[in-house]
Design brief:
2 copies of one chain form a homodimer.
Chain A: E1 9-10, E2 16-18, H1 21-42, H2 54-61, H3 76-92, H4 96-112, H5 121-126, H6 135-138, H7 140-158, H8 162-181, H9 192-203, H10 206-218, H11 225-233, H12 265-282, H13 285-301, H14 333-349, H15 353-369, E3 385-386, H16 388-393, H17 413-421, H18 425-428, E4 429-432, E5 435-438, E6 444-450, E7 453-461, E8 468-472, E9 479-483, E10 491-495, E11 498-500, E12 504-505, E13 508-511, E14 519-524, E15 529-533, E16 543-548, E17 551-556, H19 557-560, E18 567-569, E19 576-580, E20 586-596, E21 604-605, E22 612-621, E23 633-634, E24 637-639
Parallel strand pairs in A: 5-9, 18-24
Antiparallel strand pairs in A: 1-4, 2-6, 3-23, 4-5, 6-7, 7-8, 8-14, 9-13, 10-11, 10-14, 12-13, 15-16, 16-17, 16-24, 17-22, 17-23, 18-20, 19-20, 20-22
Helix pairs in contact in A: 1-3, 1-17, 2-4, 3-7, 3-17, 7-8, 7-9, 9-10, 9-12, 10-12, 12-13, 12-14, 14-15, 14-17
């Protein structure tokens, strides 16, 4: 089985192709539409959307245009993520038009890069003397990490080395700088750690892996680097992060001593990704155990039923165990994307269905909800209860948008979604010498080596629309481990049509080979089901959520009228799943519920009997909400 | 009946005396303990408490000490309120020690006052050239109003004119300044309007009443004064209020056009008090109607069951109809005090039991909860649900304190409570020529003229401990109107022991005279009762609160264990009222409830039956919570 010392290997998007099926359709939309749309965003060609200026910043830094830097200090990262997403598409299908656009920006990167290798358009444009002076807030290493991930993927996809060479020059400089000149610094926003591991993987250069570990080792040590840095700065020129405390950037403890995720959720998750990557590559058991404990605590106490994490807007942060308010949730799209990233890494070292369950929960709910069905509008925040008047008038909920936006001033989420959707093969499988481990069910074909032989494996499914998954296997002496999701109460496994009873270990059914050219079918019953939260979750007390398979459902005003909190679902009401045309074809869950009426106009009454009228309730998948205009939405519904 | 053109008159605290009984005991505590304690606070003599520096600011401004101004820009107001409270005590009983201290500070006021009459220690110490330049934020007129209220009351109590003369000089200057030099300005924080009406009442000088009306008339007009002012200021030297919008200071509409209370709750309520005072004195029907509509909307849609108002910390403000979150409530103590002030003014023009109900609800719940049983610790914020870990770790709840503080940096509430408690006679009764209108039930004697004759009326009751109220009447030809609280489902009225059946109009039972030397008894049944909120109140959906008489109850961790949200009260569980020794003798409501247990450690489960164990629940009066250390508290309890 997988372990830290014998980890499973992960697949690359280039190892196969996703197409067709429920989720494959979304991926094809990203390939064929969203990437081009995001290019127009990055080049400010979409009227009415918040400007990005991202590519223009590169043009200015390269000396090919005049102007000021515009956008967040981390604006470069948007291009890095987009480039990475495009690379994954190019592994699946050509796109000469966008490839040419990417090459142009890579040319700008070459021109903008300083002779010593440094490359960050904010500081190149605004004053290079200030580089590295505010690692806490200024995201240089974060941007470098994203550009590096993009460059690695682009090289893998196209064989073109220009971007990779730019980033190797930059990373060589970064390695020197942070081991010779700056002996204490590390990034305020983790990201480069995991990117350096990718660079180590493709170059075999140990120094990149060592630097990743060095950054992790330095974090949370005394003297506290960011305090020294801020003292030196005097008046910070970029002060927006002051006051969040050390946990904001996970500096409250040495990383190996951290047992819970704290502070800014995306930072915490990216840091854990980097830490897991380092641990898997170095056998660092203490680091691995920190990742493991953090993941388990997050799974068991700090994750929304939708896979969202980060309970509060302030600091975009984790709060404390069981604190999962539905209407003030932050649950940033990027945090759920990062949770998928982390879950796959954890699976490499520990084949535990919990990680795949977390991956599914995030992917099919908060990740997908991050974009509209037409893939042109995006959510940054993914609440579980929306009452538009409150989002407008209650300052505690001003971060909650009742509708997706065409672009976001802080645009981290849209290209993050794009790169995740285009690389789902990385999350679908991990592999050992003689074993294919199946975590996600989606239509794809992959080629890999199993049992010493090259095999091609095709998966056919309409999951999560239904629970039937067919694997067409190539002959060989290997085994399959099929994730049996925790939600799944009843399933069958068939081998060439004959039901078998595989052993299930840690959430995975073991189907042992050798196989001929045969089919293995996993058929999961997927009735609508009620979900209840742990009694310590205050916001869900007395409430129920519905789900079907990995998909969490919600009530929307468009189907159920206003004041959704007045609706009740009786504990014994049958749940019916009905295929409807709406929202591109949707399995709607319907039930006979109740609506509280108004027994009186008085604000408070005593002894006035409650009025409850029958109401037919219709639940839609959470990720499809807010595709019909501004309206109320509710995941946790009162149970009668 | 009372109307705008024929208003009832209000009593003064000097018209009688409160002593004994449940609430009288609290008043005596304020007389005998809290006023002296607050004097020590105002003079920084309480170790471990946040410093006030209030009196020291006067000393510095008077040239009798060296030093800097310390505290909020409105620090002077704390002395004004304390002086007013002391004056009300002096009407009831002597206190030569505190009276001498008051006279000393009045001496400092005289010395600090500028030759033109101006008196505000912040600007006298920090630079008089900046006075009146930032009316929006700097509270000069607010402080003036409080000092004026104190001076009027002190003169009424003692006959000493020094403070009153200081304030008349100041007000004459203010009248000139704001009618000759500044033709557009008005206070950012209303208060002086109602104080000017008091000055008009004791001097008969019409110009004071006119200035009050002028300030009201100017608010919310175009061009918007505070914008002009901020433009002129350039960079404001006191910018903490930027960004709240015009409603923060009720400048979003002309006052006569305002139909809902918006913005900062205390400001909105003080403004309405001043507007009602002006309307009653001038017959201004449009102004009166604005007050009436605002009160009705607040009562019907924006008031917590505890009488708290102001749903959000941000801007200490009203939000929107039915938005009454329990765990992020602001519900400032001062706002409930102000609600009592306003209710009495409304009763003068319209004898409607709603106003007395609101007065009771605020007084017996949020006002009393503002202070500890020992009257040495205070709440600014009065939430309806407290989970201490959340108040510490969820930034949305950082304003919620699980324990009262010895003093508050912004100390408006403690002396506001003191002046309210010492002047309850003003709220107990209003009167017409031949009619006594009884709004609050508490032990007192009053002397007034009714039916052309001087009469003395004594009320004996232990309300709200029990519901029996005895009025000992003096002979005369007058009537009584006795408020029958909205909560009261069953009562008897007895006249010298014989039950009568008085007509009830607008919430008042009419007992017609003439009377001999006789007793009228109102005996209200006061069983514990369940209260439900309007179905549009999202935070109370599916929940129940308990009350007995005017007193709202709550669960506290000290009696019921942790995780109060896991407790349920069945809709049919009998409620038992038991007198207990705890917390100074308390009528505890007990019931057989349920506690949700942990069927599983999983964060989310499907198909796992809920575990509910019997749990004996004990509810205490809301106002007594947090007198046994840091712990959870909950008003709205899940109903099974």
């Amino acid at each position: 089985m997988n372990s830290l010392t014998h980890p499973a290997r992960s697949l690359l998007p280039s190892d196969g192709r996703i197409a067709g099926g429920a989720l494959g359709g979304v991926v094809e939309g990203v390939y064929d539409h969203m990437l081009a749309y995001q290019w127009r965003m990055l080049t400010d060609q979409v009227p009415g959307a918040e400007p990005s200026h991202c590519v223009e910043n590169f043009r200015i830094a390269a000396g090919e245009a005049k102007g000021d830097f515009y956008g967040w200090v981390f604006q470069d990262s948007d291009f890095g993520k987009w480039l990475e997403a495009l690379a994954y598409k190019l592994m699946a299908k050509p796109d000469p038009e966008l490839e040419a656009r990417a090459d142009e920006v890579i040319g700008l990167m070459e021109k903008a890069q300083l002779p010593d290798g440094y490359l960050d358009t904010y500081f190149i444009i605004n004053g290079i003397d200030r580089r590295w002076t505010n690692l806490r807030d200024c995201h240089e290493l974060y941007c470098a990490g994203h550009l590096l991930e993009g460059a690695v993927a682009y090289w893998q996809a196209t064989g073109k080395r220009r971007a990779l060479d730019v980033m190797i020059r930059y990373m060589d400089y970064v390695c020197d700088y942070f081991t010779e000149q700056n002996l204490w610094g590390y990034p305020g926003h983790a990201e480069i750690e995991l990117a350096l591991c990718k660079l180590y993987d493709v170059t075999g250069e140990r120094r990149y892996l060592d630097l990743a570990r060095t950054f992790i080792d330095r974090r949370g040590r005394e003297p506290y680097y960011f305090d020294l840095e801020q003292e030196k700065l005097g008046k910070p020129f970029f002060p927006h992060n002051a006051g969040f405390g050390r946990a904001y950037a996970q500096g409250h403890l040495p990383v190996r001593a951290q047992r819970t995720m704290e502070g800014h959720a995306v930072r915490a998750l990216y840091l854990a990704c980097g830490a897991a990557d380092v641990a898997v590559r170095t056998g660092d058991a203490a680091l691995w155990e920190a990742c493991r404990a953090q993941f388990r605590n997050t799974w068991a106490r700090r994750m929304y039923v939708t896979g969202g994490v980060g309970s509060t807007y302030t600091g975009e942060a984790f709060t404390f165990d069981y604190d999962l308010p539905d209407d003030t949730a932050y649950a940033e799209t990027c945090a759920s994307v990062a949770l998928v990233f982390l879950a796959r890494r954890m699976l490499q070292g520990e084949l535990d269905g919990m990680y795949a369950d977390a991956m599914e929960r995030a992917l099919y709910n908060t990740c997908l909800s991050g974009m509209s069905l037409d893939q042109e509008r995006f959510f940054y925040v993914n609440p579980l209860a929306v009452f538009p008047e409150a989002d407008e008038k209650d300052p505690n909920k001003r971060h909650v948008e009742p509708e997706r936006q065409p672009w976001l001033g802080c645009a981290c989420c849209p290209p993050n979604l794009a790169r995740l959707m285009c690389s789902l093969l990385e999350y679908q499988y991990t592999a050992r010498e003689d074993e294919l481990q199946v975590h996600l069910y989606l239509n794809s074909t992959v080629k890999l080596t199993l049992g010493g032989a090259a095999v091609e494996i095709a998966m056919e499914t309409d999951y999560p629309r239904d629970g039937r998954v067919k694997l067409r296997l190539a002959p060989g002496d290997y085994a399959l481990r099929l994730h049996i999701p925790a939600w799944c109460g009843s399933y069958r496994v068939l081998r060439d049509g004959r039901e078998i009873a595989p052993a299930v270990e840690n959430g995975y059914a073991l189907v042992e080979g050798p196989f001929g050219r045969e089919e293995v079918v996993l058929d999961m019953a997927m009735p609508p089901r009620r979900v209840h939260a742990h009694p310590s979750v205050r916001s869900a007390a007395g409430k129920v959520a519905l789900a079907r398979g990995p998909v969490v459902y919600c009530l929307e005003e468009a189907d159920n009228g206003a004041e959704l909190h007045r609706l009740l679902l009786p504990a014994d009401a049958p749940l019916t799943c009905v295929e409807r045309d709406q929202l591109g074809g949707t399995a709607v869950i319907e039930a006979d519920g109740l609506r509280e009426g108004f027994p009186s106009d008085d604000l408070y009454t005593s002894g006035v009997p409650a009025v409850r009228e029958p109401a037919r309730l219709a639940f839609i998948p959470y990720y499809k909400w807010a595709n019909r205009g501004r309206n109320e939405m509710l995941v946790w519904v009162r149970e009668a």
